[in-house]
Amino acid sequence: MKLDFIKIASIIKTHGYKGDLVLKIDSNISFSQFNKCLKEGNAIFISKDGIPVPFFISAGSLDIINEDIIQLKLDEVNELERAKHFINNNVFLTVDCIEKESDSNYSPLNWIDFKVLDKNHGFIGSVINFNEDIPKNPLLIIQNKGKELMIPVNGDLITSIDAEKKEIHTYLPDGYLDLYL
Hints:
Layout (H helix, E strand, L loop, with lengths): L4 E11 L4 E6 L5 H4 L8 E6 L2 E6 L6 E2 L4 E4 L7 H5 L5 E5 L20 E4 L3 E10 L7 E6 L2 E6 L5 E5 L4 E4 L11
Parallel strand pairs: 8-13
Antiparallel strand pairs: 1-2, 1-7, 2-6, 3-4, 3-7, 5-6, 8-9, 9-10, 10-11, 12-13
């Protein structure tokens, strides 16, 4: 079976002493197009001598800094010196992981009026705004029973986005909603 790949990003630098990598997403593709495949435990493919080699994303390491920058750790890379060898390499996913987008640029601003559904709490509310005031920590503003709550776009609180159904699926920790409601 032959796999077809598409370049999604380049590794631009390391982060920390444990070998985390920082990826810059290509300008011709957006995070929303490959969000479903970029998960902990899944493989990304890094170009080594022109061949895409699979590496697995370590559990708890995926951090979406913003629409253009992702930070992650690979299972096989546990030290800074090894991680440095990956700088300037291209990152690929299989073509079947890439979703086609509509003509409009897909960004969290397009998520206004999306329903937010949590795995444990069910319907939380609807997105009314998006806040980028805090660098590296954009927030979705959600209306619930006349109150506003915020969910960071970074990290792993948002598990999936269904643009067709206009739904954002989350997995909020116990007590998170108690901060707001």
